Amino acid sequence: MTQAPSSASAVKPIIEVRGLGKNFVLKRSVFSRPLVQIRAVDNVTLSLMPGETLAIVGESGCGKSTLGRLLMRLIKPSTGEVFIDGQNVTNISHAEMRQQRRHVQLIFQDPYASLNPRMTIAQTIAEPLMLHNIVPAGQRAKRVAELLEMVGLRPEQANRYPHEFSGGQRQRVVIARALAPEPKAIICDEAVSALDVSIQAQILNLLKDLQNRLGLAFVFISHDLGVVKHIADRVAVMYLGKVVEIGASDEIFSAPRHPYTRALLSAIPVAAPPSHQRSRAARLHGDLPSPLSPPQGCRLHTRCPHARPECKTVSMKLDVEASGHANACAFWRDLPAQDGTEGVREPRNPKLEKLFVAFEAMAARSAQTVKGG
Amino acid sequence: MSTSQNILHAPSARSVRADDAVPSVLDVSNLRVVFEGDTRTVTAVDGVSFSVKKGRTLAIVGESGSGKSVTSLALMRLLPEHTARVSGNVNFDGRQLLTEPTSTMRSLRGNRLAMIFQEPMTSLNPSYTVGEQIKEVILRHRQMSKKEAAERTIAMLRLVRIPSPETRYHQYPHNLSGGMRQRVMIAMALACDPELLIADEPTTALDVTIQAQVLELMRELQQKTGTAIVLITHDLGVVAESCDDVIVMYAGQVVEQCSVEELFTFPQHPYTVGLLGSLPRLDEKRERLAAITGTVPDMANPPAGCRFQARCPFRINKCAEMPALMEVSQSHFSRCWRAPMEDLVP
Ligand SMILES: Nc1ncnc2c1ncn2[C@@H]1O[C@H](COP(=O)(O)OP(=O)(O)OP(=O)(O)O)[C@@H](O)[C@H]1O
Ligand SMILES: Nc1ncnc2c1ncn2[C@@H]1O[C@H](COP(=O)(O)OP(=O)(O)OP(=O)(O)O)[C@@H](O)[C@H]1O
Ligand code: SF4
Ligand SMILES: [Mg+2]
Ligand SMILES: [Mg+2]
Predict the structure, then answer these.
(1) Which of A22, A53, A60, A115 should we substitute to test contact with B (largest number of B Cβ atoms within 10 Å)?
(2) Which residues of chain B have a CB within 8 Å of the CB of A369?
């Protein structure tokens, strides 16, 4: 609906979902009828192409992780369909799904919870190699060492247990494990959020390299819009279980359509001296409404600075432009213009820029002498 | 050796002198943490000193694995005693935390000293509802009826912007999203108006709008109650927006210490320069980010001399000796032979 992926070209999406929804029952009656339900994901249609990075952003609790789990059919949707590699996997069995899962890997939001405390790092990373019989037993140790180096860990750390690692180190172990079975797509749920920026940069560069080399596709769930801007080709913005805007990353950042996207961009903290901070006026105020009883009409109307009376009753149907860019604000064409980059221009200190340049130039030079010598 | 030790202590002493009017709540000096393994001994924290003043926020930033979490766990006395050897001095409001009896520590923690952990799932009990867990903390430290504690719990959940707090009260941690769990942790830590709050990556799982709200909330509470905050984060945007002072850690040591304004205006340590340089920019798109190449040294046998030397583009022969943390300009300290960095740019 938002993009017509397959018809024109021969390239087929790796993952495609149509009308996807997921309800969680919070309370049941004595006859186990659902009394209180959450629509964590509501009528989402999108596709992921080979070699593409699709980012999913939105407020905490809006359904990003749930959507991520649905995309790889880790959980069963309440409504809609999931296709992986062209195959409808909405209703397939657990065993069949396990085979598929080699092709779509998930990096969980909580790295500690997804590592087995009684397995060494080497065992953890070797597990998928063994499970899918990818690398002959004799060469597994070497492959594990390579994977560790890829994510910036030292191979001699292989025989240690998760509790001996820092938060960021554990996160890199999880990334190495996801890369091990050579998947076609990886769903990264806040995969780099726990990393400091220099390692984050290393990992992001690594992911990009792998993508260029192997045509890997990524679904990148993140609240860090700086990272999203750097890595994503397309961005989907979610609010209370619904996709409110989806389109090319450059467009989203330079000309956001939906008021929610605009508010999100204006809330980004900028790494600049306190004396140079942007004004906080444009930020979204008020509380996220309860997903247990989302507002009628446009779900943003309780917090939207541009809300008008009709917003309480309009539908949130996506308005698709010719470019494929789509957004769910019924009145977006009437909104006051906002220059997206205006909101996120970062102040520069010219002397500091010179220092950055000196740092990079010297680093490049010493890298060369190392290679040459 | 002894001179470098003295200089090492200088920053906290000096910054206290700088504005005497504000008393410091926490004074850490020469903190060391050594993990004794069967085969290897790792010095995770190596002579760290800093202080935090009432009503102020100190940021700790630094490379992953540089000892930020271990520093905070050490001063809360939460490291396993059989493997971690902790030395140095930690003064909290006149008490020496490293030598207090365990029972005293237990009554201080969660009450006057609160901590938000890096991984919420490891510190929330999966078999109790989140409401019960917060209520439990309040009942342990405050004279309150169960009903009052439950009400305060709901008020705290509302304060950290959890929608429908009355319903969420009765849910288990696994029913909540990652960001909600993190906010539950924050509510629990703030429930007893602590004098010192140590927050280890409290907002990493939060999106920017809620992050901004939670940080503003912490600020508000701070203004009301004068809580001193130590905020461990790798998000430099958060540091810029909500902290006053900052220490930068690398391989178990403090390598730079200054005000937040100074850090972003002109950093004085090459690691910090690399760190700021590798930030993805919002207003430009680069194919590759400028990452600091190489990896952190093995802390079981760190190199002699500057610990950043193997990765440092500015290194010179002198870097084979360990630089001390030296004052480069008024209250701006750097552990680098090449500081001030002004000399390195044309
Ligand atoms: N229980 C332990 N036993 C042995 N080594 C440990 C233990 N806990 C931590 N370490 C080591 O101590 C060092 C510091 O870890 P710490 O968790 O403080 O890092 P950090 O700065 O918080 O990093 P991150 O940003 O990744 O959370 C790391 O090298 C880690 O491997
Ligand atoms: N197993 C579950 N049982 C009940 N409710 C659930 C379950 N998993 C998720 N939810 C609910 O679904 C909604 C969406 O949660 P989800 O984890 O997808 O959010 P998210 O967008 O990933 O948030 P965050 O940024 O905080 O990680 C939340 O209201 C959450 O409480
Ligand atoms: S002391 Fe030398 S190696 Fe260390 S940071 Fe300074 S210039 Fe680089
Ligand atoms: Mg999530
Ligand atoms: Mg840590």
Answers:
(1) A60
(2) none
- Domain-embedded: residue B301: no
Total number of residues shown for chain B: 346
Residue A334 has pLDDT above 60, yes or no: yes
Asked whether residue B141 falls in the same domain as residue B200, the answer is: no
Stretch 15-54 of chain A: residues touching chain B, C-beta under 8 Å = 24, 26, 36
Q: Out of A152, A274, A284, name the one closest to residue B240 (CB).
A: A274
B38 located within any domain: yes
Residue B127's domain spans which residues?
Answer: 119-191
Looking at the structure, tell me whether residues B210 and B145 fall in a common domain.
no
Q: Is the pLDDT of residue A218 over 60?
A: yes
Q: pLDDT band at B212, cuts 50/70/90?
A: confident
- Residue B300 or residue A246, greater confidence: A246
* Most confident of the following: A286-290, B4-8, B41-45, B158-162: B41-45
| Ligand 3 atom, smallest distance to B270 CA | 5
Which protein residue has the closest C-alpha to ligand 2 atom 19?
A61
Is the shortest distance between the CB of B131 and ligand 3 below 6 Å?
no
| Among protein residues, the one whose CA lies closest to atom 1 of ligand 1 | A164
Comparing A64 with B290, the larger pLDDT belongs to A64
Q: Are A271 and B283 in contact (CB under 8 A)?
A: no
For chain A, the maximum distance between any two Cα atoms, rounded to a whole number of angstroms, is: 76
* Total number of domains in chain B: 2
Look-up of token digits 């993190």: B182
Contact A187, A68 (CB under 8 A): yes
List the structure tokens of B261.
Answer: 């304004």
Q: Which tokens is B282 given?
A: 């919002």
d(CA A169, CA A172): 5
Who among B164, B177, B280 is closest to A229 (CB)? Answer: B280
Residues B84 and B135 in one domain: no
Is the domain defined by A8-232 classed in CATH 3.40.50.1000? no
Domain co-membership, B126 together with B259: no
Judge whether B129 lies within some domain. Answer: yes
**Would residue B319 count as lying in a domain?**
no
**B76 plus B92 within the same structural domain:** yes
3-state secondary structure A249-305: HHHHHHCCCCHHHHHHHHCCCCCCCHHHCCCCCCCCCCCCCCCCCCCCCCCCCCCCC
Q: What is the pTM of this model?
A: 0.79
* B172 or B208, which is more confident: B172
Pair (B169, B202) in one structural domain: no
Boundaries of every domain in chain A = 8-232
Domain finish residue from B175, B191, B207: B191
> Which residue among B42, B61, B247 is best mutated to probe the pocket of ligand 1, counting the most ligand atoms within 8 A of its Cβ?
B42
- A203-215 pLDDT, tens per residue? 888 888 888 888 8
Residues B136 and B202 in one domain: no
- Which of B238, B182, B181 is closest to B208 using CA atoms? B238
Using CB atoms, pick whichever of B204, B275, B290 lies closest to residue A360. B290
Q: Give the model confidence (pLDDT) of B252-271 as tens digits.
A: 999 999 999 999 999 999 99
Instruction: List, for residues A259-270, the tens digit of each pLDDT value.
Output: 999 888 877 777
Mind telling me how many Å the CA of A306 is from chain B's nearest CA? 18
Ligand nearest to the CA of B204: 2
* CB environment A1-24: b (16+ within 10 A), e (fewer): ebbebeeeeeeebbbbbbebbbbb
Q: What is the pLDDT of residues B68-83, one digit of tens each?
A: 999 999 999 999 988 8
**Domain end point (choices B191, B222, B249):** B191
Q: Are residues B100 and B140 part of one domain?
A: no
Say if CB A42 and CB A108 are below 8 A apart. Answer: no
**For B36, nearest residue in chain A (alpha carbons):** A164
- With an 8 Å Cβ cutoff, is A347 touching chain B? no
Enumerate residues lining ligand 1, CB below 6 A.
Answer: A 163-169, 196; B 35, 42, 44, 62, 64-70, 83, 118, 299
